[in-house]
Design brief:
Length: about 425
């Protein structure tokens, strides 16, 4: 048994008594509460007359609260305990917002009158304060009118003199502030590592896409004889290789905390044309791979967007590649752009397998994939995060067996002072 509970047990076992001031019509709840807190048969103690319950609302008597009336009623109950031969007595009062009137000017008198009961040598006064219900100005009154303060613990109390409590509180607050600062720095570090981890996961996924593009156009270059066509393919390979540099730049900028510096204003269709150039080899048969895929484009947008061009391009490429995988070498893809009001709109639709509602609800979750070992479950998750970072809204329309359409709405950049150009020399990365 804990020291506090042991003390209560010994107190009643030696014939002590308590006047317990409770809420109106709350005697049964008070008995249940004390039974649990003290590990005693409080109902038996009540029947024996060792515990008397006084209703605090009775102090009113339909009149303004009067400190003399309170002490008078307490004295009457204490006398009832004395008649039963109980010599050592406690008055136990829970002080909450109900007692605000006294704190607003009268409670000092109550302390004086309660102290008279205490000084006669046979009565101890315990006031249990529910601090969260009291005002800050009440704390000074409490500290100035108690010899000891008991602070609730988990299973016991800690006892302080008022000055000790003030000192300990200031000391704990000071340590708490230091610990909080350390905690905040550690949480920033954890968040930084989490973000860096996600960035590295996305980087691995993006590098895989870049290698697929380079490999595809390298194979095409070896299978054609037209010099101009080979030069075009080599140009795409060069731009794709430069995207590898963009990946390392992205990580470096993330580490330095200057990621926003990678954003600029771009003509939207320029980005889309770049995405098409980097994926159109997937629509052509190469080597042993037969392909009946058909790509149609309808780029009507004249708008500009403020964006990280590399990020947006990789997000769009992820959607295109997912559509190609869903069509399994046989189907049609349509890529459209147009402007509506102050928005630039991109539509990517395919005639692939489509999705049911459950799958559609899960496609942006990390590590969710329908490709088994062939998929990472990160492509669309990363794409969605990129779109969110660019304040773009994504809608997905799909039915099982009917294909899928992604519609992405980008905020249009209205004030155009200088337009970033997509160049072979790094895609405006630096």
């Amino acid at each position: 048994m804990k020291p506090y509970k042991t003390g209560i047990f010994n107190y009643f076992n030696q014939g002590g008594g308590i006047v317990y001031v409770c809420f109106k019509n709350n005697k049964r709840q008070a008995i249940d509460y004390l039974t649990k807190r003290w590990d005693l048969d409080v109902h038996r103690l009540y029947n024996k007359g060792q515990i008397l319950f006084m209703c605090r609302e009775d102090f009113f008597n339909d009149e303004p609260m009067n400190n003399y009336t309170i002490v008078q009623k307490l004295t009457e109950d204490l006398n009832r305990l004395s008649v039963k031969g109980i010599k050592e007595k406690y008055v136990y009062i829970i002080v909450d917002s109900f007692w605000d009137d006294f704190f607003d000017g009268k409670f000092q008198d109550i302390y004086i009158m309660l102290s008279k009961l205490y000084k006669n040598g046979s009565t101890n006064i315990v006031l249990r304060y529910l601090i969260e219900e009291l005002k800050e100005g009440h704390i000074d009154i409490i500290l100035n009118n108690h010899d000891y303060l008991l602070v609730d613990g988990i299973e016991d109390f800690e006892v302080y003199r008022p000055n000790e409590l003030i000192y300990q509180s200031i000391n704990i607050m000071s340590k708490h502030n230091v610990i909080r600062k350390i905690y905040e720095k550690e949480m920033m570090r954890v968040e930084y590592l989490r973000t860096l981890g996600e960035l590295m996961e996305g980087t691995v996924h993006d590098i895989n896409n870049l290698l697929i593009t380079i490999l595809g156009y390298a194979q095409l270059s070896m299978s054609v004889e037209d010099k101009k066509e080979i030069e075009d393919y080599l140009g795409i390979i060069h731009r794709t290789a430069m995207d590898g540099k963009a990946i390392t730049d992205r990580i470096q900028h993330h580490i330095r905390g200057s990621y926003d510096s990678l954003k600029d204003i771009y003509k939207f269709n320029s980005i889309i044309n770049s995405c098409i150039d980097m994926t159109k080899h997937k629509f052509k048969p190469t080597g042993n791979r037969n392909s009946n895929l058909e790509l149609t484009t309808d780029l009507q947008s004249n708008g500009f967007i403020y964006a990280n061009e590399y990020e947006i391009r990789q997000a769009i490429i992820n959607i295109i590649l997912n559509g190609i995988d869903a069509m399994d070498r046989n189907g049609k893809m349509l890529i459209r752009t147009y402007d509506i009001g102050n928005q630039v709109v991109l539509e990517i639709s395919d005639t692939g397998k489509g999705m049911d509602e459950n799958t559609k609800d899960m496609i942006f979750k990390p590590y969710f994939t329908t490709k088994g070992d062939m998929g990472t479950g990160l492509g669309l998750h990363i794409a969605k995060r990129i779109f969110d970072n660019h304040r773009a809204k994504v809608l997905v329309d799909s039915e099982l067996g009917q294909g899928t359409k992604f519609t992405i709405f980008f905020p249009m950049e209205e004030k155009i002072y200088s337009i970033a150009q997509l160049k072979d020399e790094g895609y405006n990365i630096n």
